[in-house]
Design brief:
Shape: globular
Number of domains: 1
Mean pLDDT: 86
Largest sheet: 7 strands, antiparallel
Number of strands: 9
Strand content: 35-45%
Order of helices and strands: EHEEEEEEEEH
Helix content: 10-25%
């Protein structure tokens, strides 16, 4: 399991960000390669996160939920088996402020078009 503490920023609100990520996500895949660490993540409400495994690779993870604390706790972890995160088996683990681990089963994994998302974020930043 890997832990990452990060404040999730959602300038447009989670539902708008989720809609944007869904529009730039590919077809569901059964799993993705995971080397025990990730670069960053963004909460997209209490049922989904965008997970950046590298600067050029990101995934939309939808969890069976709602997943308590996903949209406001600063630390998450992922379970994996033999270097793979598998839909229907592995979990996003939310670590709440009382150090209780709340596991949420990953229901769907979709690859994200990182280039398109970065372009949209860049354009939005230029507008502000």
């Amino acid at each position: 399991m890997s832990l990452l503490a990060a404040c999730s920023s959602m300038p447009s609100g989670p539902s708008q960000r989720l809609t944007m990520y869904q529009a730039h996500a590919g077809a569901p895949v059964p799993s993705f390669r995971y080397l025990g660490r990730f670069d960053s993540w963004e909460a997209l409400g209490d049922n989904a996160i965008a997970l950046w495994t590298t600067p050029r690779e990101a995934w939309l993870l939808e969890v069976a939920g709602p997943c308590h604390g996903l949209d406001f706790e600063p630390v998450i972890a992922l379970t994996s088996q033999l270097g793979q995160v598998n839909a229907g088996f592995d979990k996003v683990v939310v670590r709440d402020t009382s150090s209780i681990n709340i596991p949420c089963i990953i229901q769907k994994i979709r690859p994200l078009d990182v280039h398109a998302i970065k372009q949209l974020d860049k354009a939005k930043a230029a507008d502000h």
